[in-house]
Amino acid sequence: MKTVFVVLLLLPALTSALKRKVLLFPQETDTAYVQLTSEKPLNLQAFTLCMRVASELTNDRDTILFAYRTSEADELNVWQEKKGFSLYLRSSSEGVIFKLPLLSVVPIHLCVTWESRTGATAFWVNGRRTMLKIYRRGFSVSQDGAIILGQDPDSYLGKFDKNQSFMGEITDLHMWDSFLGAGQIKQLYEYQDLGVRGNVLDWNSLKYKISGNVVEVSEVDTEINTCT
């Protein structure tokens, strides 16, 4: 009886740890988006942004994956472009592009890292890093903006373009105000909820507001293996 009691006591905690949220954007639209609230202001000298993402959109158009805009400019945008993935800091025309395989219906773990001191920038796909490129050395990301998933705002929370909208699913989004190392990013890819959590955006305790046709799906992740 004692053994059975211990198992039942631990079961709720285990079940809770394995639950994950998925934000599903089911169609192309200029109205559906999710606004995120950060744990701290995005006054950044460096950052790491990670998410699991899938989409069946073809490569005949650009697709926004993450948008952070102030009242003055597109401050930090991540895109899937026709040739790969790109990062734009306070610009909609001067970005850094990495030629990588595009998204598919099978989710990938995608990260981008950047630091101001050197300008070192890289994308990471399923725990593996691209070559480094130098971008926006000495730059800093400004605070007091809006974080948007699903749309590219050409004004503060407005002027969305259906042909740039995201369609697919996003989950496990985390952001840090530092440049994470290879071991930490690999841990995020392999162990999902058991990995480190973002100190700017933490998917496990995320505050967000859904507008339009975005569906929040809860699922039990059966792929996490807690035994070695």
Describe the protein.
The chain is mainly beta and 228 residues long. The chain is 12% helix and 39% strand. The strands form two sheets. Strands 1, 3, 8, 9, 10, 11, 13, 14 and 16 form a nine-stranded antiparallel sheet that branches. A seven-stranded antiparallel sheet has the order 7-6-5-4-12-2-15, with no helix packed on it. A hairpin with a 4-residue loop joins strand 8 (108-115) and strand 9. The longest helix has 17 residues, at 2-18. The protein starts with a helix and ends in an 8-residue tail after the last strand.
Which SSEs are present, and which pair or pack?
Blueprint: H1 2-18, E1 19-25, E2 33-37, E3 46-54, E4 63-69, E5 74-81, E6 84-89, E7 95-98, E8 108-115, E9 120-125, E10 128-129, E11 133-134, E12 146-149, E13 168-176, H2 182-191, E14 201-202, E15 207-211, E16 215-220
Antiparallel strand pairs: 1-13, 1-16, 2-12, 2-15, 3-8, 3-13, 4-5, 4-12, 5-6, 6-7, 8-9, 9-10, 9-11, 13-14
Task: Give Rg in angstroms.
Answer: 18 Å
Portion in beta strands: 35-45%
Total count of helical runs of at least 4 residues = 2
From the N-terminal CA to the C-terminal CA, the straight-line distance is: 28 Å
Mean pLDDT: 87
Unreliable stretches (pLDDT < 50, length at least 5) are 1-19, 221-228
Sheet of most strands: 9 strands, antiparallel
Count of DSSP E strands? 16
In quaternary terms, these chains amount to single chain
Tell me briefly what this model is:
The chain is mostly beta strands and 228 residues long. It has helices at residues 2-18, 182-191; strands at 19-25, 33-37, 46-54, 63-69, 74-81, 84-89, 95-98, 108-115, 120-125, 128-129, 133-134, 146-149, 168-176, 201-202, 207-211, 215-220.
